[in-house]
Sequence to fold (154 residues):
Amino acid sequence: MRHHDHMTVVRLTATHPWFPDAVAQFDAYRQHYGANPAPEATEEWMRDQMVTDRLRVFAAGHNDMVRGVLTITVVPASLTLRTIWMIRDVYVDPSARRAGLAHALLAHVAEAAREEGAHRLSLQTEPDNVRAIQLYVSAGFQPVTEVVNWARVL
Fold:
């Protein structure tokens, strides 16, 4: 747990007192991108992802109220024999935006990755998500133009 200017950032477990609020924030994030509300399914999915360590969830809040969530996956970096932490989701409640929560989450995760010996912290976002890109650049991220993402929907 770290404190950043009157806010607290923690890595959650499924038994952490903030877990229910983080689930609500994550479901709001899903709805922001067009998904239907599904609080029970979101809770079950998050719990399963966290228990199996496929997903790590970090939360930021003020006065014991979760206001932002960030998720990561840890993947092997075979060439360096280390790991890469991949940020999958970043969401701050609209009522708490522009207060530094996203920066605090990014800083906390970068420090945790460094402490665990990760080689790199990566993320992806849509090229027209200007506010997110500004946030990531201000947090020290740089675009990687030497690779292309490929996907196959199953």
